[in-house]
Write a structure and sequence with these properties.
The chain is of the alpha+beta class. The protein has four helices and eleven strands, in the order H-H-E-E-E-E-E-E-H-H-E-E-E-E-E. The radius of gyration is 16 Å and the shape is globular.
Length: about 180
């Protein structure tokens, strides 16, 4: 079951990395007030993550809270109640699960080995509208780019309460639905 949940974490991180993204800036970037007027900074949410791969589907609940310096994420696999918690302060990342309850330091490289493309610090920055420039607008509420060797496309729905993301390279789709 842990290999399935590792994929859930990968997908979650892809989804969260893209949450709150806006188009690449041309000319001078808009002020923080201009950027957040239509898209609020997301510092905390609860929601559901549905993951669809060519041969599997699963769902996890998620609790996220983070600022630009520290944060915490808790993922619960819906069918098995397997729980993973990730906590970070600046560049230091720790992780534990209900199968291994002791906090263990984990490197960004190990996260990548587990399938997590973006470290949580970067995800928090993106949720604060500080996004990587590799993603380009593909039209209304849709962006695409190549990141860490994967071609990724994502689209906002329902006034930013749902984010659909497709990892085209690996044939995965994830739907993140944030509770109001």
């Amino acid at each position: 079951m842990s290999h399935i949940f590792t994929r859930v974490i990968f997908t979650l991180c892809c989804v969260l990395a893209l949450t709150g993204c806006n188009t690449a800036f041309k000319g001078s970037p808009p002020s923080l007030a201009e950027r957040t007027a239509s898209k609020p900074i997301i510092t905390q949410f609860d929601g559901r993550l549905l993951v669809i791969e060519p041969t599997r589907r699963w769902q996890a609940s998620i609790h996220w809270q983070a600022n630009l310096h520290e944060g915490y994420a808790r993922l619960t696999h819906a069918a098995s109640s397997y729980i993973i918690e990730i906590q970070w302060l600046e560049e230091n990342i720790r992780m534990r699960s209900n199968q291994n309850p002791h906090w263990q330091a984990i490197s960004k490289h190990k996260l990548i080995d587990l399938g997590i493309i973006l470290p949580p610090q970067m995800l928090a920055a993106i949720l604060h509208h500080q996004i990587p420039s590799v993603f380009q607008s593909q039209g209304k509420q849709t962006w695409q780019g190549k990141f860490n060797g994967s071609l990724v496309r994502f689209m906002w729905k329902n006034n930013m309460r749902q984010l659909n993301i497709t990892d085209i390279t690996h044939g995965r789709t994830a739907m993140l639905k944030m509770n109001p």
